[in-house]
Amino acid sequence: MARTTPSTTPPDNTDTASDVLTGLALAAWHVLRWSVIVTWWAVLFPMVTFPAVLTAWAWIAYGWQAGIAAALLSLAVLTTWRFTHPSSFRAAIPARIRARFRRYQHRRQWASVCALNGLAPVLDGVPIIPRLRKVRIHPDTDVLLVELVVGQTLTDWSRRCDALAHGWRVSAVTATSATPGQVTLTIRTRDRLATPIPLPTPKAGVDLDAVPIGRTDDGDTWRVRIAGRHLLVAGATGAGKGSVVWSILTGLAPAVQTGLVRLWVIDPKGGMEFGSATALFDRFVHTTGPDTVQLLRDAAELVRDRADRYRGHARAHTATTAEPQVVIVIDELASLTAYETDRKAATETTQLLSLVLSQGRAVGVSVIAAAQDPSKEVLSMRQLFPTRIGLRLTEATQVDMALGQGARAAGALCDQIPDALPGVGYQIEDGTAQPIRVRAFHVTDTDIDTVVAGYTIPGAARPQPDTDQPGTSASDAGDPSAYPTPGF
Ligand SMILES: Nc1ncnc2c1ncn2[C@@H]1O[C@H](COP(=O)(O)OP(=O)(O)OP(=O)(O)O)[C@@H](O)[C@H]1O
Ligand SMILES: [Mg+2]
Questions:
Q1: For the chain, which terminus, N or C, has the lower number of CB atoms within 10 Å?
Q2: 390: Cβ below 6 Å to ligand 1?
Q3: Which of the two residues, 313 and 51, has the higher pLDDT score?
Q4: What percent of the chain stands above pLDDT 70?
Q5: Looking at ligand 1, which atom is closest to the CA of residue 239?
Q6: Is the shortest distance between the CB of 404 and ligand 1 below 6 Å?
Q7: Would 263 be classed as within a structural domain?
Q8: Is the pLDDT of residue 400 over 60?
Q9: Quick check: 473 pLDDT over 50?
Q10: 77 and 207 share a domain?
């Protein structure tokens, strides 16, 4: 066995020299790297760099007094900018710094985020991190474009969205896929819909193609089309269906007053929801059964009559006082169909409603229906509603039932809307894949009283329904002649 003896050779000077050289090279590399970073940031933020350079130059060239004067002048300019044009200031400095920082943070944490959430499959003992292709930072959302690892699906990512949201400490993360092999993660960093949106004063000159009823996720006004459309509003009890319908009605109120729109309202809950606004309505029913059936018969008759008259003349209806847009509001669809104990009435209601839904759009008859329970039998007519709005729902499976196949996978997370956000939901339009997140105006009882007082139909003072005895009488549907409807 060979014996090892302690080395007695003196330390090699060449080793020390090479260590020094390596140290110097490393230091030079760091200096160069930081110079590039600082220069790059200086170029990116001239509004910060320029005052700093000005101050340094004044100090060196003219002494410390000049330096301080330059610094104070720069500060005054920036402060004036901050207070006179806050939005451009925010966009130019804090928002850009934040965007840079968040982009850097996402890229730096990406590997551990994937590994901790089980999104980095392991091959031969080595984790494969999905490639982060792009990071876009917006004021309210961060959007990450991710390349899937072979074997991963959109569902794998959708399932982890809740965990990702908790990890990032944000209110929601959604995963969607527009291109095979890629997933877009939308991280909601700020919720513009977190606080109730007060009802604005309804504007005259109502555009039936774009009635404002709230706000969208990106801060725009949420508008819905009423002409040529039917709207379905699905949501659990207390989800805010009433606020969506009321936002529409108050938006339409000026057109109701001028006679361009007529409202036929079915409020099967005994008139509790709409009974205070009958002065805006042309027809009002607060019982199920014969009254409701009669109103729907009249609607079907109107549709047939208009279709006969328009045939060969007009391809689309334009609302006039002679031929107004008729908007039929049904507060709880299930009360007329699934929950109706009179099966004969339920069957006739379904037939009449199907007719109005399938043929009414072209002739100026629209239906707005609210539904608490989007079960199959309630929403057998779902496909006939081109605009569908899903508010808070109790189960994930209800989302596709209410909004259509694939709506939840496309990002309509109605089952994840907290109780604390009534009026928040997702709207989906037939023909568009992407749901938009929205919140309806918060319409209070005082708002309703103000709108009713301001836009009552002239000369048509209507009796209040007898809401003390729900379901007993007080319907005008059985006697259409009580409220003359010119032009029908
Ligand atoms: N858009 C909104 N913004 C703020 N608060 C709202 C909004 N919509 C509803 N709310 C609040 O939530 C409560 C319940 O709303 P709403 O009556 O509209 O629910 P709903 O879905 O119609 O319930 P139900 O099925 O019982 O009729 C309201 O009393 C109101 O205080
Ligand atoms: Mg309601």
A1: N
A2: no
A3: 51
A4: 89
A5: 21
A6: no
A7: yes
A8: yes
A9: no
A10: no
Please give the number of the atom of ligand 1 that sits closest to the Cα of 242: 18
Phi/psi class of residue 25: alpha, beta or left (left: φ > 0; alpha: ψ in -120 to 50)? alpha
Token pair for residue 33? 């790297």
Q: Could you tell me if 203 and 311 lie in one domain? A: yes
Span from the CA of 480 to the centroid of ligand 2 (angstroms): 26
Q: Which of 160, 188, 216 is the last residue of a domain?
A: 188
> Using a 6 Å cutoff on CB, does residue 196 contact ligand 1?
yes
Which band of pLDDT confidence, cut at 50, 70 and 90, is reported for residue 458? low
For residues 72 and 56, give the distance between their C-alpha atoms in angstroms, rounded to a whole number: 13
Residue 425, annotated as binding a ligand: no
What pLDDT was estimated at residue 465? 45
Nearest C-alpha neighbor of 224 from the set 388, 88, 19, 457: 388
Residue 242 annotated as lining a ligand binding site: yes
Residue 351 and residue 239 share a domain = yes
Ligand 1 centroid to Cα of residue 477, in Å, is: 27
**Residue range(s) defining the domain that contains residue 75:** 43-92
Q: Is residue 69 scored above 60 in pLDDT?
A: yes
pLDDT at 467: 41
- Cβ(372) – ligand 1 distance below 6 Å: yes
Measured in angstroms, how far is the CA atom of residue 90 from the centroid of ligand 1? Answer: 35
Q: Is 431 annotated as a binding residue?
A: no
What is the token pair recorded at 258?
């001028």
Strand pairing class (436-442; 126-127): unpaired
Find out whether the beta carbon of 425 lies less than 6 Å from any atom of ligand 1.
no
CA–CA gap between residue 370 and residue 24 (Å, rounded): 74
Q: Whose CA is nearest to atom 1 of ligand 1?
A: 423
pLDDT higher at 330 or 377 = 330
Any domain includes 64: yes
Are residues 268 and 138 both part of a single domain?
no
In a domain, 71, yes or no: yes
What H or E segment, with its residue span, contains residue 216?
strand 211-216
User: Whose structure tokens read 């001028």?
Assistant: 258
Q: Which atom of ligand 1 lies closest to the CA of 423?
A: 1
Q: Is the CB of 238 under 6 A from ligand 1?
A: yes
Q: Is 235 annotated as a binding residue?
A: yes
Question: In this predicted structure, what is the pLDDT of residue 168?
Answer: 94
Domain assignment present for 33 = no
Q: Does the CB atom of residue 270 touch ligand 1 within 6 A?
A: no
- The predicted structure's pLDDT at residue 273: 86
Please give the tally of structural domains in the chain: 3
| The two structure tokens encoding residue 432 | 């568009």
